Amino acid sequence: MHAIATKSLFAVLLATTLAACSSKPTDDQSGDLQPGRAGSEVAPVSEQQPVQPQQSSIALTADNFHNHPSNYDGTTSSRVIYFAFDNSSVPAASFETLRAHANYLKGNSNAKVRLEGHADERGTREYNVALSERRAQSVEKFLRVQGVSAAQIEVVSYGEEKPAAYGSDEMSWAKNRRVELNYLSGRP
Amino acid sequence: MKAIIAVLIVFLSTGAKAQLMIQVTEGRVDAVPIAVVPFAVSGGSVPESVDQIIAANLHRSGQFRPLPPEDMLSRPARAEDVSYRDFRVLGTEYLVFGRVEALPTGAYRVSYELHDVPRGTRLISETYEPAVSQLRDVAHAISDRIYEQLTGVRGAFATRILYVTHNRGADFPFQLQYADADGARVQTVLRSREPIMSPSWSPDGKRVAYVSFEADGRPGIYIHELATMQRQLVSSFDGINGAPDWSPDGKRLALTLSRDGNPEIYMLEIASGQLTRLTNHYAIDTEPRWLPDGQSLVFTSSRGGGPQIYRLNIRDQSVRRISFEGSYNSNPAVTPDGRYLTYIHRRGNNFHVAVQDLQRQTFNIVTTTQQDESPSVAPNGSMIIYATKHGGKGVLQAVSVDGRIKVHLPSKEGEVREPSWSPFL
């Protein structure tokens, strides 16, 4: 196990991996120290690597769910960003989608988006609220780096209180580790 | 040595709205045999079975083994009717009997006695005159008296449990409710379309604090007076408003705010609204709980990597780590005497309630359930109530501080979570 030293925000954002972790400790137990750190074995994605193939032949699994191209269409129609287990960094597969949101927000100053952070059910509730705030803040940083005004972004964290999937299994947990982009005004 | 006494009794509370049932899944093998004789009824019907409530309370404590009434050789209602021999042959150590009389006023007269069977002596003889609505209170008060007489520890049967329910698909999926410690007499404090979290009792048991996301999905901390149902929004900053916990003097709340961009522990003076920041660290700090001295807090922090329990001295704001077993310990609570710290401990893929003896520094995992959260200690320190999953559903369980007694509280519908045990009322 090794942490990835991160120098730039871009590297932080890329330090997400399709391979994700193979162990199953709790959600994000230490994601606060280094935003790009994964819980276990990490295969870093290089900056040159194509971010998102149009069609993926990779099977969708709980481990790659957060970074699977099928979860993001690259437009503002995609409104959910998923996260690796034990991780609060924005997955590379979602970059194009988030750039589309950033461009939309920059072009529509009346639009306001709420970033709603969520965690899976493992671990204690208020701690999960804090963890899910980190995810929403990662998305916020991405949008801000793209030039979106802080006034157009609000962050709310719900922890494990509003799951998208109700099972107690790896795939349900993968679906619940997420940030939803909820337009409060000027919805695209 | 522990023994599994699987599902000895299922106690169904009698109230129509009752939602919680009680099963003792693991009791002490040396549980004390006691006979609670069905009380003689006169003067009219009595809507509550006082003796059954007492027997169920004593059973649920895990420390007593009530004799089934059908095994009793005689059923005395008065001291002159008692044949100790009838109970000695059954190995019964203590005997409770009594009478409930419906009075012309509409009230009731409840008399009972507690006897030591081997010695053939009377230990308690008392009479109460409750209104009909107070019959259960009297049954709990009698249970408390018997428990204290026989264990030397104050009983906690006349207390309440506050908790959050979740019924997916309902108009108001989230509800904040409280019930008697035996699950009866459910009262709803708040119903909401948005999450309700982290309920906490005031030390006088008259008010509760909680987090509600009712304001357009944004979190706020509310103080709610139970008698009047009046409430007050006391914290609604940007970011997290979470984890309120009432100080022992009732004047302050410890809480978590991320208004400066990062979750930190604060102290809120309720009367003045004055806010004092107590932690300052880039890691997560949350889940504060007061220690009984009112001078210090325990809380969860990820400043060492994963979450661990830390102790904070309010006066000088010094912080030191106090949990060291494993890589995940969170959501602390402390027994009323300050001796034991309980928290959620991860072992492998599972989350258990753990108890740490702060004097001897011993550490024990006290549950076998696997997705435990939200431990809360009874005001007499006897039991820890917590939330876990059972059959995919959120349920409440209780476990003794030494892990020897385990009680299951299944709900009839929906999820029950985040229990908070009231102070003595």
Please provide a written account of the structure:
Chain A has 188 residues and is α+β, with helices and mostly antiparallel strands. Chain A has a single domain (9-44, 61-185), classed as 60s Ribosomal Protein L30, Chain: A. Chain A has four helices and four strands; from the N terminus they run αβαβαβαβ. Chain A has a four-stranded mixed sheet. In chain A, helix 3 links the parallel strand 2 and strand 3. In chain A, helix 2 crosses helix 3 (125-145). Chain A starts with 8 loop residues before the first helix and ends with a strand. Chain B is mainly beta. Chain B folds into two domains: 31-151, TolB, N-terminal domain (Rossmann fold), CATH 3.40.50; 160-421, 6 Propeller (Neuraminidase), CATH 2.120.10. Chain B has three helices and 33 strands. Chain B has helices at 50-60, 84-88, 135-151, and strands spanning 2-4, 10-11, 22-28, 32-36, 40-42, 64-66, 94-102, 108-116, 121-128, 160-166, 174-180, 187-192, 196-201, 207-215, 218-225, 231-235, 241-246, 252-257, 264-269, 275-277, 285-290, 296-301, 308-313, 319-321, 329-334, 340-347, 350-357, 363-365, 373-377, 383-390, 393-400, 406-409, 415-421. In chain B, strands 1, 2, 3, 29, 30, 31 and 32 form a seven-stranded antiparallel sheet that branches. The longest helix of chain B has 17 residues, at 135-151. Residues 1-20 of chain B have low confidence and may be disordered. Chain A binds chain B through residues 24-26, 29-30, 32-33, 114, 116, 121-127, 129-131, 133-134, 137, 155-159, 161-162, 166-168, and chain B through 168, 195, 197-198, 213, 217-219, 239-240, 242-243, 256, 258, 261, 263, 282-284, 286-287, 300, 302, 305-307, 327-328, 330-331, 344, 346, 349, 351, 371, 373-374, 389, 392, 417-418.
